[in-house]
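Notes from the pairing session

We agreed to fold both candidates in a single pass and log them together. This is the raw record for the first candidate, unedited. Please don't reformat it; downstream parsing expects exactly this layout.

Candidate A
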Amino acid sequence: MSRIDVNNVWKIYGGNVVGVRDLTFTCDDKEFLAILGPSGGGKSSTLRMLAGLEEISKGEVKFDDVVVNDKGPSERNIALAFESYALYYRMSVYENIAFPLRAKGLKGKEIDKMVRDIAEVLNLTTILQKKPGELAGGHQQRVSLARALIRRPNLTLLDEPLSHMDQRLRAGIRAQIRRIHEEFGNTTIYVTHDQAEAISLCDRILVLSNAEKQQIGTVDEIYNRPVNKFVANFIGQPGMNFLQGKVHSQKSASVDTDEGVKIIEIAGTVDPKYIGSEVTIGVRPQQITIVEDKEKGFNLMGSVKIVEFQGDTSILAVELNDIQKTEIKVVIPAGGFKFKRGDFCYMDVDPEFIHLFDSAEKAIIERNA
């Protein structure tokens, strides 16, 4: 088993450059945790401290309640796969995959069976005798993954392992990584900037930005209950729409429009201290419903500026009739309403999907559990 506890961990480079700031989180035994965030957010620094490749400046890391700050990578029973393949180019694919097993003292038939089993899972059987230099980048990355996973470690650390593969291949390898995780039953931490990878693979997501934890939770929690404006905008494609308004009551917000003040109901409540204060109202493009006309009831309206066809959906860029003339995006299914530039668009948003953020960009709606 392997439960990971990261307690108030800092990584400081050169005395004053903060790579990770006061990070605390837990990865449970057999959990698949994704660390997601933009470049420079602290993802790789965190993973390298977990691996024992970077010294921890402050705080502690525990594996199964044992502090491992002073233990090297070989003492932590971990497997690593990085964005760079780090393969031995004079060895065959077979020997590259077998290398960690030979280092552990395994021999002969046991090594051969384990190599061929993992090669079959990752579709490497036909290239086992080739050298890495003869392979395309996608194949080299799969060899790197096979070498990391074959040791059946307590903890697997994967740092952008699919970044050099084309999109179609990545989708297939993601499924294989998840299947291996389930079969081996080890704990996995996966670093990526790709939302699709994090969402499709993980049990939970840890969002990092500017060297700090922004939020940790399930996909549903991160997507539907973002704790701040950064998470709300970073998660989801396209990102969340934002417009300016005020807190009208504990159960509603208001927006100044060309037609007067528009009241927008919310699910949950807001602390009375916010009533009358300016807030940012957020709503996801996928959670806006188009209504046929203004007689049917709506809480947003605007003029269509761009229609972007996406195959099974279209994305509308709509200029609202609020005072700021905010442009928002709306995702509509193919075969639904047809729009062209200049059309008026009447929209409704379920109160459950409305988010409010204060001047510090923190979510302020208290929702029922």
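Candidate B (folded immediately after A)
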Amino acid sequence: MGNLAITYQYIADILSFKSSNDMLEETLSDKEFDWDNIVIEGSKHLILPAIYCRLKTKQLTHLLPEELDIYLKEITALNAQRNHEIISQVNSLSELLNTHEIEHVFLKGSALISGGYYDDNAERMLGDIDILVANNQLDLAFDILKKNSYYPIEQTLGNDFFEHKHLPRLKTDKYICAVELHRKLFVSHTDKALSCSNILSSSQLINTIAIPSSKHLLLHNILNYQINDNGSLYNSVSFRSAYDSLVILQRKDCSTINSNSKLIRNYFNLLGIFFKDIPEKYSGTNFVTKFYNFKLKHLKFYKFWNKLIKLIDFLWIIISRIPHFIKNKAYRTALLKDRRRIFSHMRSVLKNT
């Protein structure tokens, strides 16, 4: 795979709501078309079900090699069943929180599938269920879930000494997903539009499930990738996040957003390389897009650059925690006690860079 930009463009054309079906059909009909690269990158970006569903919507699944068609159909069916179980879990959580008058909204993937944003719920692959809860009810919500089959997962020592955007993850043996109760959406980044109070006060109720407004869903999707998933740090694109944005942008109540933020502009600029769905006022060419294109066309440099950024980010975390180690005796004691796990993690990071 010498030029990742080509594979990314093919994936974008499959996912896009505005790409030419005729041109896409012509491209996919080529006997030399490399489906392996689509599967490899689609798997990395957690979008294989979305790729299959979009090909089905565009009536192009007949162009898939027979074995690949069976494989993608099976993965999509499994994801559809998983999401059906997740929706049942969301309904159960919603009923439980509403019974105790806990002000909340579901976030990210669980909000999107509960809100009917996808033509087919099988399109979206989900991990945890994220719920934003009013700050003054957060501990109460945590206790309520613990009394209803959920139990906290063992945390690393950092959970005791550094602020997190959510409480410890909760698991249950009754349902498929772990749950994270959020006090806020970001650890250090501040965005007034995405404050807890703003999101809760403008939430929408769809089939008794409370989710953020379309505008807040879009802003959170963008900034969650750029900040929490380090998309801005690595100057990269996530096609799962990209497809979520395209789906949300289809809504009339989400036709305009404030793009003054550099993080938002860069996000749309990178998507604009591949998608015609991005409004011209949000997309543009700059150093960020040129550098990203360069990386995609020079994969050895791309891999080297990502490893370098990962190493720098890891070293910065260590440096930033040195003052805590010096000043905080409890942190120093806990760190020394957990040294085997920490050294193992450090070796793993250094080995992979």
